[in-house]
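>> received
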Amino acid sequence: MSSVTESMAALSSPSSSSSRFGTSVSRPTIMSSSPAVSLSSRWGFPEFKGLKIQSNPKLSFASSNSKYPRVSKHRGGVVCEAQETALDIPAVTDKTWQLLVLKADGPVLVEFWAPWCGPCRMIHPVIGELAQQYAGKLKCFKLNTDDSPSTTTQYGIRSIPTIMIFVNGEKKDAVIGAVPKTTLSVSIEKFL
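>> returned
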């Protein structure tokens, strides 16, 4: 890696040159009393030598006798089973909204989400736990806002994740954002 001094020396031309108007223009020259020293060695910073991608066998999660059996290596990435538990929540769409949510007996929790939303993926396992905890008392669904834009617009969803609770087809409560399980439990308990 070349130093600042070497770069400036390469860019500079002789100390005087003529301009297009025929006058001589003096250019500053770089004087150095010591040999060029790079900033990395001068200040103790490590020198950048490019990016290296290496696999570390000590960090492999793929072994079957791993300390973390719920984590597996899949297609070059790490996949956790927590993502799969979120898939247990049934989906509702614009077509099934009336039947599954508005005409449902008892309270219904609906999570408005999108696959590209990081906080939505964080709250999926929480919604799954709540669905199991309140099984028989509360129905839980998820609605993909990208696939069901008319329902999303009808309820004024502008931020995701948004969790709404409906009782007898009426919206009773809404919680916006990836919130703790206790916050959602308190909202649910009001309508059981």
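>> The chain has seven helices and eight strands.
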